[in-house]
Amino acid sequence: MEIINIEAGTFREMVMSIQLLKEKLESLKGNQTSKSLDDWMDNQEVCMALNISQRTLQAMRSNGTLPFSQIDRKTYYRRQDIIRLIEKGKKR
Predict the structure, then answer these.
(1) d(CA 41, CA 47)
(2) 64 conformational bin, left if phi > 0, alpha if psi -120 to 50, beta if neither
(3) Which of 75, 74, 77 is nearest to 66 (CA)?
(4) Residue 57 near residue 66, CB atoms below 8 Å
(5) What is the pLDDT of residues 42-91, one digit of tens each?
(6) pTM score of the predicted model
């Protein structure tokens, strides 16, 4: 086992720097997590928002009407794409 000696003042500065970095990271993590989760919808949410069936949603994915992303076997849609699709439907 190796022992390293540092001055107490230097150690306190290191601890303060680490605490400040930790606080910044937690703040960034909190902002990113809440924003990113709010920006995405799953199949059920989209079907309810558009008042369509799962099969219609699948057809919209297949023909390119609605962009999507997949993580493992779960499909997600950007909320802004759903809003754009709703607005497009209202204009017709």
Answers:
(1) 10
(2) left
(3) 77
(4) yes
(5) 999 999 999 999 999 999 999 999 999 999 999 999 999 999 998 887 77
(6) 0.58
